[in-house]
Amino acid sequence: LLFPVSNLCGKCRPRDTALLQPSLNFLYWSLHQTTPCSQQRAVAVLLSNVSLLELLQKVLECTWLWSPPSRPAYLSSEDALLCSGWLLVASLLLYQHRYNTEVHQTLSVDLTEVLNAVIFRNKKPILLLVSIMQFLRAVLQQNFSSSLLVIVGQNTAASATQPQPSSLQDTALHPLAMQQVFSLVVSLQNLLVHKELLLSQAVVACLETLVEYLYVKNQDVALHVASQPWHQFLLFTLLSGGQKSFLQPEVLRLMTLFVRYQSRNILSQKEISQIIHEAAEANIAELPEATSCALHLFLSQV
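C-alpha cells predicted for MEI1 protein:
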C-alpha cells in the first residue's frame, strides 16, 4: 500500500487536505507500526518518491503561509495537515539516519522560521507546536547534518559589531546563535507552565535534546543554560500541583536533566533526598509505566 498511497500524495496539492490528511497519517503509522526489517524498506520506498518529498516541501512551507492573525480555537483541517507533515518529516529524518537510506530529493527548511514558531508561538495550536518541536528534536539529534535536510536561514559566524566572546560562542553553536538558544529556553519554560500534558512531554523532550546538543558543542554554554535560576521557579510551579506532583513523568525527567548537568542551584542534595524519601513511600507497583521509567532514570542518574 505504501506505493499507491505515496504516489497519490505526490499528485496532490497542499490544499487537498481531505485526501492528504489520512494519506500522510497512513505513511506515518506505516513507519512506526511495523517490524525493523519492514521499516527499513518503508523508509527506502518513501525517500525514493521524489514527488512525495516535493509535496512535503510545499506542506512545510505552508506553515508560514497559513498563519492568519486570528486562528480558530479548534484544530482546522489545514493545521491538522501541517501536523501530519511535520511529524512525517521528523520520522523520515530519524529513520533515514538510522538506516543510512539513500536520498533522492532533499528538503529545505528555514531554521529561523522553525525557531520562531516555538519562541513566539503566534497562537499556533498545541498539536502543531508539538509537531514542530518533534522536527526540531530530530535535527538537533543529528547536529543539523542530515543528508535529507538543507538548513537555510543559518546565522553567520560573527559580525564586526558583535563582541568577540559572543562571536566565538555563535561559531561553536552554529547554525544556532546564543540569542536564539536563550530565547528558545525561555519559551520552553513558559510553555511548561501551561501544564498541558502533551505539550509538557514535548517541551521536556526538546529541552533534553537541546542541552545535549549544547553540551557536545560547548560544555560551558550547556551548563550555563541548565543552571539558569528561572528553572528553580519553574520547578516550584510544576511541583505546586498538590501531593506527589513530583511523580509526573515530565517533572521527573526535568529533575533528571538538572541532576545530570549538576545544577545544584536548581535541585539541592536536600531536595533530592526528600524526593527519594517520598518515592519510597509511593506504591511503585501502581505507578503508570511512563512514571516508573522516569523515576528509574532519575534514581539511576542520582
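Strands lie at 107-110, 149-152.
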